[in-house]
Amino acid sequence: MALELHVWGPAFGLPSIDPECIAIVTYCQQVIPKGQWSLVASYDKSVGLTESLPLLFDGGIATATGYEDIVSYLRNHPAVSNDLDANLSTQQQIDRTAYSAFLRSAGTPLIDLSLFVSAENYNTTTSSAYTAILPWYANYTVPPKRRGLARTRTTHMGLDSLDVDTRTEEVSGPGRGTASAEFEAAKRAAGLPTDSKPSSMSIGRSRGFRGLLGTQKYAAKFRLDAVSNELLEPLSDLLGNNKYLLGTLQASSLDCLAFGYLALMLYPAVPQAWLKETISTKFSGLATYVQRLRKDVLSDEETGAAQVWAIATGRRSSAMEQPQRVLLPWRKRSQSFTSNAFTGVKEVIGSIPVISSLIKRELPIEPTPSSSRIRSKLPSQVFVNTLLGLTAAVAVGFASFAIQHRRSPREGELIFWALRPSVGLGDAGNIFNVLGQLPSGSFSQF
């Protein structure tokens, strides 16, 4: 099996949590014969401005990354039996290129706002989705990096009010939860006069900080509708009464890309579902189009993280006694347990601010031709030996701990769940603190 596609893991019943990964899975499912390709749930720990997933391996060699590059590579591959864009006219080819770029530029900020920037959606839905597809140690680095990247991409849109979770103020604000506060609240609800003084910050019917946030979110709703319409109206006009976007008899690569983005707007069960509501009510034709593509290409299959985990590790939990048939060719990861364990140790050590900066220093490749004695800028040998000894001790402890949890039974879809207390050592400090608090069986895959 020569072709191996690595993507971000499944979420929300879809093949991936990333739009471009969903798009390329949809494309490959239509053009590569069964048995000629495999699918691997992976993750990108760097999460830079240029995403490294999806990534295609051909014969064990990385050949293409990103949706467009992989599609271009597969067009000339002997294993591909069908080119979805082969019969497009010149004008349709131009439209495909233009609308593909438009989808990325207009669709990416919408997904960023819905799944990452919105504090309520991120805390209740997105973060737990990542929990189910990432190794436990990656939960402290990958989701925050992806959220930070989403915030950066949407700063210019002026929708920072989405990045405030009003539940925090409601639950833990001054005087919340006391008997007197509850009594005053009951009197206000009954329309009786109260002894509490009105806040100096009064906006409309709501008062105080909550009133301000409510007003900001109400104003943001108009902006969100406008931003949504900028993407959905042109797509709706392009689709018209046709079955596919370019008026073709079969789905094109543009349809696969549109499905990747629109599916992540329509299917996630987020608390603030403004994007789903807009598509379902104002652009019902697009909603029907996405549902039809999912049924035709993916047979309405609900891809679960627990199913993919069982396939990837070759083990079944007690909650999954009978193996479930899956449509997509998910396969077992080739990375060994030892490799996973040392990857975890590396990320833990690399997350400590001071140590990570020392480890990342590079030795000079060539000696500097000089007769004068040059003072080394690297740490002393004693310090290096001490650091290596400490690292080895942490590695041994981590490996022992990993072996213990590897033997524990794995149940349920929620693989890892923990609060992130701060202990002053950055991400690594959070990891060490949680390691000392959680009971056995609380961690994800290694």
From TrEMBL:
The chain crosses the membrane at residues 382-403. Residues 167-203 are annotated as: Disordered. Residues 230-293 form the Metaxin glutathione S-transferase domain. One of its GO terms (biological process) is protein transport. Keywords: Membrane, Mitochondrion, Mitochondrion outer membrane, Protein transport, Transmembrane, Transmembrane helix, Transport. Residues 21-147 form the Mitochondrial outer membrane transport complex Sam37/metaxin N-terminal domain. Coiled coil: none annotated. This is Mitochondrial import receptor subunit. It comes from Didymella heteroderae.
